[in-house]
Amino acid sequence: MDSAAPVDPSSTVNSAELSTIPNGGTEPDTLRGRFSSLIANAMENNPYFAAGGGLMILGTGLAVARSGIIKASSLIYRQMIVDLEIQSKDKSYAWFLQWMSKHPHRISKHLSVRTNYVQHDNGSVTTKFALVPGPGNHWIRYKGAFIRITRERSAKMIDLTNGSPFEIVTLTTLYRDRFLFDEILNEAKNIALKSAEGKTVIYTSFGPEWRKFGQPKAKRLLPSVILDKGIKEDILSDVHDFMRNGKWYSDRGIPYRRGYLLYGPPGSGKTSFIQALAGELDYNICILNLSEGNLTDDRLNHLMNNMPERSILLLEDIDAAFNHRTQSGETGFKSSVTFSGLLNALDGVTSSEETITFMTTNHPEKLDPAIMRPGRIDYKVFVGNATPYQVEKMFIKFYPGEEALCKKFVQATANLNVQISTAQLQGLFVMNKDRPKDALEMIDTLRHSSHVI
Ligand SMILES: Nc1ncnc2c1ncn2[C@@H]1O[C@H](COP(=O)(O)OP(=O)(O)OP(=O)(O)O)[C@@H](O)[C@H]1O
Ligand SMILES: [Mg+2]
């Protein structure tokens, strides 16, 4: 205790004098002796003072203990509990949600719905609902371990890749079960890849980003697209050749890219062929339609330089760019891709992987010769209306074994003396499923639906 504090200020005892007094002096005559006995007296005889002192000690003790417990428990927490955080921008995020929605031991009634639509070639739309765990806490049991799953949504941040709120899923479990995280993520990935197996993912642009267009589509098989003799095989062998020669390009410092142009009338199977080719190569496909008004030079450039891996780029209707020499354009369109914008984007792709670009147009005469330079378009092929070869192949594809009728049908189409697209043929055959005779009888309708070019 500080000896100076309770001393009468009038007293003139100095510290030197005090230090000569033996410690805890008992003589009541000295200043310290008097003071000590006063305190002892108070402690013994005054219950309030005694209790206060006791409380003070107890309080201090508790506070120390409390902070100790907090420290210890956070230490135990850190030792025994492990967290895994998955952010919505991470690929495994969607995989994990999908995995969890299928997990059988889920103790949660809080779900949210995720809707996907797929627009088919014929314009019809299929809608699929998936029930995924909603925001909040969920508990699951996985291989005997309890795992807490917290899905949190940020109200302020938006994920630019898909326009949805930024989210985080946190998995918490005991330290000893931490290896389960790895197993869960692998399981989730395998389920997701299985569902994409045999399928082609189609990406379209959404703002500055690529976004999956609906669910992965069943692969279109190459034999289902019937082009004139040799066209498919030639393109396929060229693509294979290109893909085998990465080292050749890098050794010579040439950008590893190849551009293909398919030109010809509508409904001749250009888009269908490119989709089937992507399926054959096990690639995904990124589609940009240059005739869409909301695509600018900057966005085109950005998109082409930020493609998802293993994708073919498909630029549809590239003639649209040739209507607009400059961004402001004589035609008055304010935002659309310009001729120079397209060339720059084609030249500027700086991917370490190979870049395969397919371009389509119905109007090759509108294209500026500058686009035919190697590195922009290296391979160009005409995909035209149905030739007798294609008519025959398509007929047999729809009506296997009907060789005799097929001959008549091929002759009848030739006699019509009009251009018929393969899409028109398909229309006629779909209308007469399993009725080849009716298809032959209705052949005149092709004349009306055809357009002479
Ligand atoms: N050669 C073909 N073989 C098989 N199916 C075809 C063929 N041509 C067209 N089709 C069918 O016709 C429809 C339209 O074909 P697609 O969209 O591929 O034509 P396109 O050449 O891309 O036309 P556009 O120039 O108008 O874009 C599809 O449903 C496709 O299955
Ligand atoms: Mg097309």
Question: Can you give a write-up of this model?
Answer:
- The chain is of the alpha/beta class and 453 residues long.
- The protein folds into 3 domains: 82-197, no CATH class; 217-382, P-loop containing nucleotide triphosphate hydrolases (Rossmann fold, 3-Layer(aba) Sandwich), CATH 3.40.50.300; 388-449, no CATH class.
- It is 40% helix and 23% strand.
- It contains 15 helices and 16 strands.
- It has helices spanning 15-20, 31-45, 47-80, 91-102, 179-196, 231-244, 246-252, 270-281, 297-304, 339-348, 388-398, 403-416, 422-431, 436-441, 445-449, and strands at residues 81-87, 106-107, 111-119, 125-133, 136-142, 145-159, 164-174, 199-200, 202-206, 209-212, 217-218, 257-263, 284-289, 311-316, 355-361, 379-382.
- The strands form 4 sheets. The chain has a 7-stranded mixed sheet, sandwiched between helices.
- Helix 9 (297-304) packs parallel to helix 10 (339-348).
- Residues 1-27 and 326-330 have low confidence and may be disordered.
- Magnesium ion (MG) binds next to helix 8.
